[in-house]
Amino acid sequence: MNVSLNTAIVANVHKGLTKGKLAKRIFFIILGAILMGVGIEEFLVPNKILDGGIVGISIILSHLSGWKLGWFIFILNIPFFYISYKQIGKTFALSTLLGIAVLSATTLLLHDVPVFTEDLLLATVFGGIVLGVGVGMVIRYGGSLDGTEILAILVNKRLPFSVGEIIMFFNIFIFATAGFVFGWDRAMYSILAYFIAFKTIDVVISGLDESKSAWIISDKHKIIGEAIIARLGRGVTYLNGEGAYTGDDKKVIFCVITRLEEAKLKSIVEEIDPNAFLAVADIAEVRGGRFKKKAIH
Question: How would you class 121 by CB atoms within 10 Å of its CB: exposed for 0-12, middle for 13-18, buried for 19 or more?
Fold first, then answer.
């Protein structure tokens, strides 16, 4: 499908977005899809290394039939576009269609371009990284480049398995098939590339400064709170709590930090009160409030 047509359709759906935000979303979905196409056609496929999901099936079918990869990627994802349109929503479905259309077009255009490297390890590592950056970018801006996740979400409602487990089983089947088609060494390289891409996607979606929430219970809550403000530059909130076993009133310190500040926070708490209760958890997103870091001296 023509990319400009996709842009027009998505623009019509996103009437609530400003033109700037809409343009930004479209730009990064297109850029992410192009990067994934580069990772596939310039690193993985020429070296007979697979990705997981629908793209992995498309690579196998392309190898066996001689048809270009881009056609399989687009055709096999059409049913999942329809399902996502019905089950998840127009915005996600149209963003996904845009991404898949650009991905398919990119792989078609790059099909005859000379490969970047024939070294299997370099192709695996850099192919996984480039692919992961592209996929992560598209997911971060509200789209998808593979129908596997959509299928897993729907099947999850009928089977006693999580979405992650269903995707894992699906990919095990794909990589096992790759072992018979391309050889078991290529299947192992494919698993390595998939793992690298998976980790890269996490970094792109969450960012290097991934946010974490911290809950601290201590009799020295005032001192710890003031130390966090002074030494980390982070705001804190004091919550009222009650010990279920003792019935004593407790003060709970709540604050949001980045991943890079976690070690410093633990050091502050242990230094002031080695017996304090400390719980740290990942946060998917932080908005509003006073999360912005204050100046520290």
Answer: exposed
37 and 3 Cβ atoms separated by less than 8 Å: no
Contact between 277 and 217 under an 8 Å Cβ cutoff? The reply is: yes
**What phi and psi values does residue 80 have, to the nearest 5 degrees?**
-75, -30
- Nearest CA among 191, 188, 140 for reference residue 168: 191
Cβ-proximal residues to 15 (8 Å cutoff; 6+ apart), any chain:
none
Which token pair is 137?
Answer: 């970018």
- Report residue 44 as tokens: 């993985």
Task: For residues 245 and 101, give the distance between their C-alpha atoms in angstroms, rounded to a whole number.
Answer: 59
Q: Report the half-sphere exposure of 153 (CA within 13 A, side-chain side).
A: 10
- Candidates 195, 197, 204; CA nearest to 136 is 204
Burial of 9 (0-12, 13-18, 19+ CB in 10 A): middle
Which amino acid belongs to residue 37? G
* Distance between CA atoms of residues 116 and 127, nearest Å: 10
Take residue 144 and report the two structure tokens written for it.
């998808």
Helix (DSSP H) and strand (DSSP E) numbers for the chain: 11, 4
Distance CA 81, CA 97 (A): 7
Beta bridge partners of 254: 215, 237
Q: Which domains does the chain have, with CATH numbers?
A: 19-206 (no CATH), 211-282 (3.30.70.120)
pLDDT tens by residue, 216-233: 999 899 999 999 998 888
**Tokens at residue 293, please?**
């870091």
pTM for this one? 0.70
The tens digit of pLDDT for each residue in 164-215 reads 677 778 888 888 888 888 888 888 999 999 889 888 887 787 665 567 899 9
CA atoms within 13 A on the CB side of 260: 6
Query: How far is C-alpha 110 from the geometric centre of its chain's CA atoms?
Result: 25
Of 51, 244, 231, 271, which is closest to residue 145 (Cα–Cα)? 51
